[in-house]
Design goal:
The chain is an all-alpha fold and 344 residues long. The chain has one domain: ABC transporter involved in vitamin B12 uptake, BtuC, CATH 1.10.3470. It contains 14 helices and four strands. Strand 2 and strand 3 form a beta hairpin. Helix 3 packs parallel to helix 8, helix 3 packs across helix 12 and helix 3 packs antiparallel against helix 13. The protein starts with a helix and ends in a 5-residue tail after the last helix.
Length: 344
């Protein structure tokens, strides 16, 4: 009994309940004509597509900047890298590496400005980050129409200027990461080895960074700013570094998502990743001031598993589409749950 209580306390009731619900969906799926291999394929693919964006939450949480509701800043930087790569007609690995490079440079600049702003609103970071994310997306909606992109794949055909709402990357670098060392277990289950290895690589970089002197200082700032200040740590500088790092990781994450999805979605699309990314890291056990890579892995798998399995299983059982309802309950519910807990 003691061991059970300890497990419940450490793992948390939300994760236990959602984990059991997800397990039950896998169990009953065959009874409603849903193939297990198809289900596993969809869950792992969606995990690989979203995990790096969820990983981008970790640095800002660790530095005490709170949940990064301003993640669209980094996503827009990645979109900028993607459309620039397409503009030059780059294909294959060269194309996606160039997209990463441009995205990282843009994310570093955007992240610097974003971090400087958050330093001026300490205590209200999450509120201001939300405004920043939405405002930046709407500002870029205008910029996408006037930036001098001319590649026929990207621009709107009737005017020859202004970017399309959806840009295909089929002729450029689609699945260049997803198909790397992929393993086909069955006709419907292809294990996305490339995306998972890339996520593991990014996780290793983040883990290694937080073992450095700067990473340790960022953690100290988030855990106990008074102690960090007494130790001679420049708190504002560490916070800015964490924001830049989060923004750069997010830019990489959206490019990985795009190469798997097959399209670059423009304009308001970054806003659709805000609450799912925040909810996933919280579902994994993170709080508003503490997060780990394990939280990212657990949370992303549970969240994407629910989003993947709910439509196929429950819709087949009751013939009613409740997937959006489940997504709203899980994402918003986890955010409210986290914000009402005491800081650990």
């Amino acid at each position: 009994m003691v061991a059970i209580n300890k497990f419940v306390k450490n793992f948390g009731w939300p994760r236990i309940i959602i984990g059991c619900f997800l397990l039950s969906l896998f169990i009953v799926a065959p009874f409603f004509g849903v193939g297990i291999d198809t289900s596993f394929n969809d869950v792992f693919v969606r995990f690989g597509m979203s995990a790096i964006m969820v990983l981008s939450m970790v640095p800002m949480i660790q530095s005490g900047c709170g949940l990064n509701f301003g993640i669209p800043v980094g996503l827009v930087a990645g979109m900028l890298g993607a459309v620039t790569s397409i503009e030059f007609g780059l294909t294959g690995i060269a194309g996606i590496l160039f997209a990463f490079l441009v995205g990282l440079i843009a994310a570093a600049l955007f992240g610097l400005l974003y971090g400087l702003l958050l330093n001026r609103v300490k205590g209200d970071e999450m509120i201001i980050a939300t405004y920043v994310g939405y405002s930046f997306v709407f500002f870029m909606n205008m910029m996408w129409l006037i930036l001098p992109y001319r590649n026929p794949t990207s621009v709107q055909g009737f005017k020859g200027e202004g970017l399309r709402a959806t840009i295909s990357i089929e002729d450029f670098w689609i699945h260049k990461i997803s198909d790397f060392l992929k393993i086909q277990f069955t006709e419907n289950f292809i294990f996305p080895t490339g995306m998972l290895l890339f996520f593991a690589f990014m996780s290793f970089l983040v883990w290694g960074f937080f073992k450095t002197k700067t990473g340790t200082a960022i953690t100290a700032v988030g855990s106990n700013p008074d102690y960090a200040r007494a130790a001679g740590i420049n708190i504002d500088k560490m916070r800015v570094i964490s924001v830049i790092l989060s923004t750069m990781i997010a830019s990489v994450g959206i490019i990985v998502y795009q190469q798997s999805f097959g399209f670059v979605q423009m304009y308001n699309s970054p806003l659709s990743f805000v609450f799912p990314s925040v909810a996933a890291v919280l579902l994994g056990g993170a709080s508003v001031n503490k997060a780990s890579i394990l939280n990212v892995v657990i949370g992303t798998f549970l969240f994407q598993g629910i989003l993947t399995m709910t439509p196929s299983v429950i819709n087949s059982a009751i013939n009613i589409d409740v997937s959006e309802i489940i997504r709203i309950i899980v994402s918003n519910g986890m955010i409210v749950y986290a914000l009402t807990r005491k800081a650990r």
